[in-house]
Design brief:
The complex is a heterodimer of chains A (398) and B (275). The longest helix of chain A has 44 residues. Helices cover 56% and strands 17% of the residues of chain A. Chain A has 2 domains: 182 residues, no CATH class; 128 residues, no CATH class. In chain A, helix 9 runs parallel beside helix 12. In chain A, strand 8 and strand 9 form a beta hairpin. Chain A is of the alpha+beta class and 398 residues long. Chain A has a 6-stranded mixed β-barrel. Chain A has a two-stranded antiparallel sheet with strand order 8-9. The two termini of chain A are 27 Å apart. With 275 residues, chain B is of the alpha/beta class. Chain B has a single domain, classed as P-loop containing nucleotide triphosphate hydrolases (Rossmann fold, 3-Layer(aba) Sandwich), CATH 3.40.50.300. Helices cover 33% and strands 23% of the residues of chain B. Chain B has 9 helices and 10 strands. In chain B, strands 6-7-8-3-9-10 form a 6-stranded mixed sheet, sandwiched between helices. In chain B, helix 3 crosses helix 4, helix 3 runs parallel beside helix 5 and helix 4 packs across helix 5. Chain B is globular, with a radius of gyration of 18 Å. The chains are: A alpha+beta (398), B alpha/beta (275). The interface between A and B is medium-sized, with 23 and 25 residues.
Chain lengths: 398, 275
Amino acid sequence: MKGFEAFRVAFDALRGNRLRSLLTMLGIIIGIAAVIVVVSIGAGARDQIESQVEGLGSNLVLVVPGQLDTANPGQGAAAASPLQVSDGRVLGDVVGDDAAVTARISSAAEVRAGSRESYVTVQGSDQNLPYVFTRPVAEGEFFTQGDVDTRQRVAVLGSVTSQVLFAGADPVGRQITLAGTRFRVVGVLAEQGESFGVSQDNEVHIPITTAQRLFGIDRVDAFAVKAPSAADVPALSRGLRQALREEYPDQEFSAVTQTQILGVIGDILGLLTAVLASIAGISLLVGGVGVSNIMLVSVRERTKEIGLRKALGARQRDVLTQFLVEAVLLTSVGGVIGIVVGVGGSLLVNGLSPLPAKVEWWSPVVAFVVSAAVGIFFGVFPARRAGRLDPVVALRTD
Amino acid sequence: MTAPAPSGVDGPATSGPAIEAVDVTRSYDLGGTVVDALQGVSFVVEEGEYAAIVGPSGSGKSTLMHLLGCLDRPTSGVLRVGGRDVLELDDSELADLRNREVGFVFQSFQLLPRSTALDNVGLPLLYRGTKRAERRELAEASLRAVGLGHRLTHRPNQMSGGEQQRVAIARALVGRPRILLADEPTGNLDTRNGAEVMRILEELNAEQGVAVVLVTHDDEVAGRARRQVRVRDGRVERDTALEARPAGPAGDAPAGAGPAAAGEPGARHVAGQQA
Ligand SMILES: Nc1ncnc2c1ncn2[C@@H]1O[C@H](COP(=O)(O)OP(=O)(O)O)[C@@H](O)[C@H]1O
Ligand SMILES: [Mg+2]
């Protein structure tokens, strides 16, 4: 019996039992669709985060105290920070440009303007922030070096905070209360966008010196340094660390670059996606077991048919092929439906929920191959059983 | 392959008997107890022969038919079908042999319920690798040969029992086997339909030279066969083909020395005169 004939016979058999075929496929459909959606969300998230990290500029270096392994960036070292605002000049000497270095500390606090209030991230930094992080000022101006040096109580708002506190009115020149202290708004930053539904613009920037007093700390969490070009980043990283080690001989410092962050994010997201996809893949496995089960039932039900076919000259191989093709047809048709559902679901998630989702071109291809493979894997056992039936015994059953 | 030719001889070039069984046994091991369904049967089916097997229920008739039809293998003895020793063939060769050498007709028709008459009849050719168009052509010719030219696209549940059995006969014939084995072909039919099926079997034997071996409980049906074989308790109790031969040692026909010898076709006519 030729492959195409086996296909026709299998197709007829499945069509003769439409409802059962559909129910059997359901497990495969759900499994494939779930894996595709998870992988799409993983890819969408990675793209979004990467574009944001890239938005920082590929020549940005973050200098933090402590020996960081790249698997855990930005965490755990701030408490022991020995860094002072004055260290900015040391780092500026390394780059050869004082304006390319900005110090920062972060905290969170309640902010009020009249009857409106909000809970925001408070960034203590200096006049170099707009240049180093490439963050244009939309209204008013950023605070100046003079503001930093004299601990002025001035603030620059993120676009969302501005909207929340002033509802579209021009905030420049108005008063806000931050952690119980009054500040004058001098500017508003341009919109940065959001990530996973969380705005990056719900923040207030104040001079780092003012922030240190406000929060009762005298250290600096980190310095951000802008290298002249991406090619300078590795050498600059070494130079910055070296300079700081000379200042603080028994301290370690790390220079974190965008490339490292991207690599780490990629690793974490890849792992997360793999874990979630594996969980979704379990339903595919369950679907495969379902196919195996139904095929076994089908073999039992059709024992007589198998006996007859063998009596008429079908070889073991012919019967095995027929049932294997049936199983593969079931799972691959289920796979195609699952791909349609999964791609559609991914587009819906992307459009209707805050989660980003991007269908990678390879995921439907892999899904199809996997579903066909599931059919072969879970179909072989029932098909072999069918092929080995003894025609006389099979014909005798009722 | 073209439309049925008038002669049934187009199988392998062997000139021996179509089927030859020598001292064949078949035992079923039922987990401890062994049932000896056949206990040393020697049986030869000649080209173009027409034989009826009779015997009480449980005597081993179906078991014998299954062996002759290569649906099963003997426990011991020699069984040659189309000149090939069944015990020396593997599963796939045996499948091929039963596909080409014999056509089998069952008491309960055994048609695929969802397939049309044409598709049912074409089934043996599917396993021979015949193309679909040719399968349909041959199936149609075979259905016309049993008088069912007007039922080509009917499904089994749209046909009478007699018609269904004729579809089964058409299916057994479509591959142009040399032997037709029918195990109680009229067992599920009323008298009129049974008679029609018998008429077709006799006609096929007479006009196309297909050897027919059938099992029956009906004395009248058996009486019309040229040769009668009576089976009891797994043994051949009486075989008219052996009695008709003047100097044959009854019930003990060694391979190659039995009815296969030259000039033997006459034996059929001797047996036939008894009808
Ligand atoms: N598959 C089998 N397993 C065990 N015993 C069997 C099997 N087939 C037939 N038999 C036994 O072999 C004997 C002959 O059966 P069978 O050939 O069907 O008789 P008949 O067709 O003459 O009625 C019976 O005793 C039957 O029970
Ligand atoms: Mg029987």
